[in-house]
Amino acid sequence: MRRMLTLALLSLPMIACAVGFTPPTPGALYTEQPPGANGDGEQAVVTSVIDGDTIDVRIGASTYRVRYIGINTPELDEPCYREATDANAAFVSGKTVTLVKDESNTDRYGRLLRYIYVDNIFVNEQLILQGYAEVVVYPPDTRYADYFTRLEQEAAQFERGCHPTGIFDDGSYTR
Q1: What spatial distance separates the first Cα and last Cα of the chain, rounded to whole Å?
Q2: CATH of 32-165, one of 3.40.190.10, 2.60.40.10, 3.30.230.10, 2.40.50.90
Q3: 99 touches 57 (CB < 8 A)
């Protein structure tokens, strides 16, 4: 039995190739170096993960609430809230992050609006690619809107993260 299972597992890649399946490559669509990867932006320490798209950070002696640009994750009363929050926490909790601005500095609630990087990991990108966030477009902060949309389409196609719950199936990228 064990030998048959091993043989079956070893033959899966050949079968996948024969039917034309190409596994997704995270970040394969990215054609330029992401801002923040070369030290652009402001350094901060994450003091608290609020949810899947919001964190508190310390910059010097001050604490700020930061809302991730270009993404939206499930709210407290929605399916997949815990999973999206946990995915965000796995990337940033207690870490030094680089905050990169697009056009706007803050939103109507006074939160900083930023793209988030941990080392060379573009967290906004990864949350979409792994299926824990959907694209949200709030002009004028649209630098990666088209790129993020392609990533969300890939995540939905492969039913990653929260996509099987239907939480992101409203047909809109505008909130």
Answers
A1: 53
A2: 2.40.50.90
A3: yes
The CA distance from 41 to 167, in Å, is 32
CA distance 169 to 69: 20
pTM for this prediction = 0.79
CA 175 to the chain's CA centroid:
17
| Phi–psi pair at 12, nearest 5 degrees | -55, -45
Helix H or strand E encompassing 151: helix 145-157
What amino acid positions are annotated as catalytic residues? Answer: 67, 75, 111
Q: Rounded to an integer, what distance in angstroms lies between the CA atom of residue 23 and that of residue 57?
A: 36
Query: Looking at residue 175, what is its pLDDT?
Result: 56
